[in-house]
Specification:
- There is one protein chain.
- This protein is mostly helical.
- About 80% of the residues lie in helices and about 0% in strands.
- It contains three helices and no strands.
- α1 runs antiparallel to α3.
- The chain is rod-shaped, with a radius of gyration of 21 Å.
């Protein structure tokens, strides 16, 4: 794999990871459970910033890591498959 291809694959993986983190934060922020923790329940009761401080980093990290891990495993599997074909003497 050439340097330009590696750079493009790396850039695509980073973009996918950023999109995953942004979408995970959006989904988490728009859920009813999060709204209740932030005090949007009945008459503003039940504000719980401890839950938000715990969940926010986990959601951000999970949203960024899951797409990156899937992308890396797909690139690795497709790279192995491509190398096997290139070294096939019957080809």
């Amino acid at each position: 794999m050439g340097r330009a291809n590696r750079d493009a694959v790396t850039c695509a993986g980073c973009l996918l990871s950023a999109a995953g983190a942004a979408s995970a934060l959006w989904l988490w922020g728009s859920s009813g459970r999060t709204w209740r923790h932030l005090g949007h329940g009945f008459e503003g009761e039940g504000t719980d910033y401890g839950a938000v401080l715990l969940e926010f980093p986990l959601v951000l990290t999970g949203g960024a890591l899951l797409p990156a891990l899937l992308w890396a495993s797909a690139v690795r599997l497709l790279g192995r498959r491509g190398n096997r074909r290139a070294s096939d003497p019957d080809r």
